Structure formats: C-alpha cells, structure tokens
Amino acid sequence: MRLLAAATASLMITGTHAMASAGGTEGGGMGIAGILFVAFIVMVILFQLLPGMTLFLDIFKGLFSSKAEERTQEGVKNNKTTL
Fold it and tell me: Half-sphere exposure of 45 toward its Cβ, with a 13 Å CA cutoff?
C-alpha cells in the first residue's frame, strides 16, 4: 500500500511540474472558437440589457406621471379595484 501511495505521489509531483513548465508549444492565446464564444456572450448581454433598461425607464415614467395619479383617483371615485 505504501509503495502504491509513493508511486502515485511521485507521478503527481513530476506531472504537475511538467504541466506548469513554459517550454514546449506555446499557445497563441484564444483561438477563433474562443473569440466567437466571447462575442456571442457579449451579444446576449447587450440584447438583454437594452430592452431591460427601456422597461426600467418606462416603469419610472409610469410611476411618476400625472396620468397615474388621475387613473388612481378615477378608480377610487368609481369604486374600481383595477386600473
């Protein structure tokens, strides 16, 4: 059992040194697939952000407009619970 543990530990130690070394083939950074993936994620965020901001601003317009106050008063006058 000790022999197996020692062999496994020595392989893990030498393997991690080899993987962490800077020699060998150096990657050129992200490939075309990585660039396309990042671009896709950015497009999803942008296409979700613009309608979300529009909706957020429209909600504030509706909350602070004078028409909302008028509709509330009219509903109270007519004893309606929905606007």
Answer: 6
Per residue of the chain (83 residues), give pLDDT as tens.
Answer: 777 777 777 777 766 555 555 555 666 688 899 999 999 999 999 999 999 999 999 998 888 877 766 777 777 777 766 55
State the DSSP string of 62-78.
Answer: HHSSHHHHHHHHHHHHT
- What stretches of the chain show up as alpha helix (H) in DSSP? 2-20, 32-63, 66-77
Q: What is the pTM of this model?
A: 0.42
